[in-house]
Design a protein that fits this description.
This protein is 80% helix and 0% strand. The chain is mainly alpha-helical. It folds into 2 domains: 76 residues; 85 residues.
């Protein structure tokens, strides 16, 4: 059941590509995808069906959801170039973490830390609240949180793969 919920996140993510950004259908799919992310792990643990495959599927679903959101949202909001450069820097750190982990452990790993969950929650709130708060300030705070999360992840990856 948990993997089905995760699979729906992937479907919802791709369906977002077909919706006008910030439309009612966009928000319905966006919130559904976010809700599925919150409950799939809990369902897996509660039903005793958590697995390595489920964890990998969850990571893939997170990547798809994040990529689709970036494709849909970043082009339609105005932010200074330094925010975009910061986002690229964070993405490069996260990508390096994946490569280092894969090279050293011969498998894809992801760090499910509290700070990563905080970063994910903060990122999820951005499209829901950016019109209520100064976009640049909101984005800068998000960049700080996600930078800390990415660097914490780097520390975990390097510590566990050395």
């Amino acid at each position: 059941m948990a993997n089905v919920i995760t699979g729906f996140r992937i479907i919802f993510s791709f369906a977002l590509l077909l919706c006008p950004t910030f439309s009612i259908p966009f928000y319905a799919l966006y919130i559904s995808a976010g809700f599925s992310d919150m409950i799939d792990g809990a369902v897996a643990r509660k039903t005793g069906t958590d697995s390595e495959f489920g964890a990998k599927l969850d990571t893939i679903a997170d990547i798809v959801f994040t990529a689709v959101c970036m494709i849909k949202i970043l082009p339609v909001i105005e932010m200074p170039i330094w925010i975009y450069l910061w986002i690229i820097g964070i993405a490069l750190i996260k990508l390096a973490n994946v490569f280092i982990s894969y090279i050293r452990l011969k498998k894809l790993t992801s760090v499910h830390s509290v700070i990563n969950k905080v970063a994910g929650a903060a990122l999820f709130l951005f499209p829901l609240g950016f019109s209520l708060i100064d976009t640049t300030l909101f984005a800068a705070v998000l960049c700080v949180i996600t930078t800390v999360a990415a660097l914490h992840e780097s520390n975990s990856v390097l510590r566990h793969t050395s």
